[in-house]
Design goal:
This protein has one domain: 60s Ribosomal Protein L30, Chain: A, CATH 3.30.1330.50. It contains 8 helices and 7 strands. The protein starts with a strand and ends with a helix. It is 34% helix and 25% strand. The structure holds magnesium ion.
Length: 208
């Protein structure tokens, strides 16, 4: 089974007068995280981990910080784009593990809610989401929140582009086999498959 791993990291400074949102939940705290979007450092790290696992870029390449459309945007939008990329590539999430690094507020009492919300946003079970938090001991970064995220993906759809590109077609029998596997050759005789062989039938735009 094809599996891929991804890692993401993000940081945002605390700022007075900004609502605090981490992991998709609003947290009662005197300061929030400054950012062009809603500053949800955890969702940004998870988004980057997902995009990184697919090797399709990062959150900044999809959502440039200078773009006015993403001013104060709900970071669930970014996460949803990464999930669409995941679907297109034919992968699903096995599990996600995260670590927040921040002096305050304490995450322990709300980590259950945060885990539940992140699981909902990712459409996976809560037991596939790890939420951990540490204080930045010795880092002199008490006004910054950092988030680290690791994701593991597994392939679920052999009709996707990545699977097709990986297929090696050397002889007509293999062509038949692959065409059958991707569901486009049912009813085709071997001679028809052979006739198709020299053509670019594995152009993913034709099939997906
Ligand atoms: Mg960010």
């Amino acid at each position: 089974m094809s599996m891929r791993i991804g890692y993401g990291w993000d940081s945002h400074a605390f700022q007075a007068g900004v609502p605090l949102k981490i992991g998709g939940i609003a947290i009662d705290h005197p300061e929030g995280l400054a950012g062009h979007s809603d500053g949800d450092v955890l969702l940004h790290a998870i988004t980057d981990a997902l995009l990184g696992a697919l090797a399709v870029g990062d959150i900044g390449s999809f959502f440039p910080p200078g773009d006015p459309r993403w001013k104060d945007a709900d970071s669930a939008i970014f996460l949803n784009l990464a999930l669409e990329e995941l679907q297109t590539a034919g992968y699903r999430i096995v599990n996600v593990d995260t670590t927040l690094v921040l002096a305050a507020p304490k995450i322990g009492p709300i980590s259950g809610d945060m885990r539940q919300r992140v699981a909902e946003l990712l459409d996976i079970e809560p037991n596939a989401v790890g939420i951990k938090a540490k204080t930045p001991e010795g880092l002199n970064q008490d006004h910054v929140a950092q988030a680290h995220a690791v994701v593991l993906l597994e392939k679920f759809d052999d009709k996707s582009g990545i699977g097709l590109l990986e297929a090696e077609i050397d002889d007509p029998d293999t062509v038949d086999e692959v065409l059958t596997k991707i569901g486009v050759s049912e009813g085709l005789s071997s001679s028809k498959s052979r006739r198709l062989a020299p053509l670019p039938v594995f152009d993913t735009e034709d099939i997906t």
